[in-house]
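RETRY 2/3 - previous attempt timed out on the joint model. Re-submitting the same 1002-residue input unchanged.
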Amino acid sequence: MKLTEDHIAYIIKDLNYRGIVAEGIQDELIDHICSAVEAEMEKEKRFIDAYHTILRRFGHTAGLRETQKQTIQSDHKKPKDMLKNYFTVAIRNLRKHSFYTFINVAGLSVGLAICFIIVLFVKNEMSYDKHFEHAERIYRINNEIKFGGNHYNMVYAPPVMAGTVVEEFPEVEAAIRFRQRGSYLVRRDVDNIKEDHVIWADKDFFKVFSIPVIAGNSTTALAEPNSIAISKKIADKYFPSEEALGKTLILDNQINAKVTAVYEDMPANTHFHFDILISMEGLDEARRTVWYSNNFQTYLLLREGTDVAQLETKLSKLVTDRAMPQLKEVLGNDFTMEKFVFSLQPILDVHTKSSLQGEFEPNFDIAYVYLFSAIALFILIIACINFMNLSTARSANRAKEVGIRKVMGSFRSHLVRQFLAESVLLSAVSMALAIGIAYLILPLFNNLSSRQLVIPFGEPIFYLIVLGTFLLVGILAGLYPSFFLSAFKPASVLKGNVALGMKSGFIRSALVVFQFSVSILLVIGTLAVYRQLNYIQNKKLGFNKDQVIVLEDAYALGNNRTAFRDEVMRNGKMESSTMTGYLPVSGSWRSDNPWWVEGRDPAVQENLVSVQCWRVDYDYIKTMGMQIINGRDFSLEFPSDSSAVIMNEAALKAFGFKGEIIGSRIATFGNGLGGEPDRNNLETLNLIGVVENFHFESLKQNVAPVILYLSDAPNGSISFRFKSQNAKEVIETVEAKWKELAPGQPFSYFFLDERFNSMYASETRLGKIIGIFSGLAIVIACLGLFALTAFTAEQRTKEIGIRKVLGASVSSIVLLLSKEFGKLIAIAFVLASPLAWYGINWWLKDYTYKTEIGVGLFLFAGVGAFMVAWLTMSFQSFRAASSDPVKSLRSE
Amino acid sequence: MHSPELLKGTLQTIVLKVLKDHGRMYGYEITQRVKELSDDRILLTEGALYPALHKLEAEGMLKTETENIGKRVRKYYSLTPQGRSLVKERVNEFMEFIRTMGNVLQVNLG
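RETRY 2/3 succeeded.
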């Protein structure tokens, strides 16, 4: 018998009344009971009797509810549902407190983004040269020489070294030499283009360094003189949409070089980037058999299982057996070297552990890799601490939640998981944002660090790391709060006995102190770097770097050099000019030779003075703005000045000149026919003046002895000291003249001060990067402090209200609220200062000339940090203090 | 009537087998069918049936569809392919159990 609509409505209502309401089971039970009632009514029962029979079978209300409960439980027995529940609650919680969530997410995502970029950067630095197939077996020969007060640590070896080791030592599979001769003017038809990355190289280049060759035969490519191998970049530049192989390029207007190979551009993470390799076969210098001239960067490919230490002993035997006899022959039998050692360095160490004379490119000190990693980690920790502090501080608000949950039967483990879910969720959101931020700021960072980093979206390991990181960060940040919060005793919580958030916060205070210690440390570091940079830029250098324009590659003018110079001088915009490659900024020509005071015995080592010998011309000292402190400048009025010398104070001291010195004479060996020093051909110079010491290399080094004498054929670059303030006008004038006299030759120039500043590019970069980091660290720490004060103020609304009613002033309340954190910052400053002092001294130890780091700097940083923190706090405090007490007291 | 204690472990097996033999069924129909097959000796209690059905559904052994019949909504259960393979497993397992019990209790099951 079918039930009527009314009957069904009755059943639905009744069951609802009995508490059968759960979605998914309600309908089912209704249908079941209806069917059963129908069956029962078949037995001629009244509806209501049938219904009660069925209800009894279910066990009335209690039985029905039990069925419902059991069913719901079997619906949710799966872990997926539990997690889902955790996350639902977590999302609701985070959304409810969106202000704190925002603070946390902002801090964490910036922290993660920084970490992320640093990890990419560090990974890149550590990956240098690893791409070479035989990277493990390639070694570079380094060379340390010490004699007569000279100390060289360099990457140069003698020209005969490579050939000798391959021939005589079976463990050397191949050896290749490089010889750098500066930039080259390159042309295909008419116009020259200046190329910087040009090198002379032995033919085994491709055997040792596995750079893929696109066209040509890698084994025979550089075998012939005047053959070159070029990178794809150069091939595309000079031979666009053409086969470059077999074509000819003209180098420096004199070498007709045939392209015998085109290779893939050298990867960015290589410690050299050559665009043109010239066959060493065409270089006379490379065939010399001398051991005392060191000009060739030499790399060895060793066989598997070579004992490197043993090979080094063999190299030192070469010094005693070959080099020393040659030296004695040239310099006399008594000559000894204090130190002359060849060592082998794995190329995998070159980029991060080497900074010697003659490096192809500036390398990166591994100490900075560690420093950056530490900073990144600190920033992340600061962000995590924000999370911890805010969670525990707000514990009072959640204590009731915890109490109720526990009363309802929640285990502690459930609560821990609940809180962890919140932090993991937060860190997942931050991670997603962090990747976005990293993606956006990576181009800026690349610009700053001159690297080409990319986010490896294509690599599965990347996603693994991202996943691992956000889980780890989420768990680390959530662990302490979750245990702290879940430990509440329900009885005391619900009675209202739990201490409010701000009390019992020893750990929280410690964490705030840590945050600010790190921030202050970074700020002091940044200030110190900037102060040193400033010191360098404003130090009295001994020459005037401003208002000087330098034209490079004067040789491109050929015989028009002097004409060009005179023409430019004629327009009246220039004060003076000089033609020489020897300039007081690094990257210019350098040449050192041993000299001695005439009359002393050059065979006695103590008599030899190694000095920089700079061939200059008449107006050099005037153009560079150097100061003559004794004697006179070169002058056309004295024909004898062709054998005159002016030396700097350092050289004066090195030669041991005292008293009346003008007219003293110094001597050195002249060149023999083959270019080697000739003992029988002495060259002497007559001292006419002394110039004040001037810094011509980085301030990391002492001023070395320099002698200046006149060159018979000036060459190199042409420098003009100009009067006009308008640099653009100067460039235009000079360029117009250049185009006229050197058509088709590239016009390249620099300003002396700019080149000077570029000597400190890595310091500037370091300063900028650390500056950004410390700024971020302090911002993140302040975000946390901001939220903490906001919270305290909120907690103490009533207290503030009562204080105001009783007559407290706004300022006294602001002070009250900021006092606690103010103390913490003071402690942080005390902790950070000694560390910072130590760190700064460590960094400055490389500089011979360094700025004074006084108490002022520390105080400045400390007061600065305090001010920033105090401003942050006072915003909240002031808001709380100035609120209307009536409002805060009237509630409840 | 068999004691509910004995039935406890066999509930899922019964439900799965009945569904396999009859295709889609709703809760009440299952109880009636079992009652019929067992000559009124096995009465499934609703308090056990629905949790079992929901558990099997959550595990992916059963799928459901609903039909509106006037004011009532009827929910039909049927086996998923996964559930289908489980039936055989469960029945075999149970037969094995019976044989073992025969040995343990020293009775010949004939």
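Chain A has a mean pLDDT of 85. Closing ticket.
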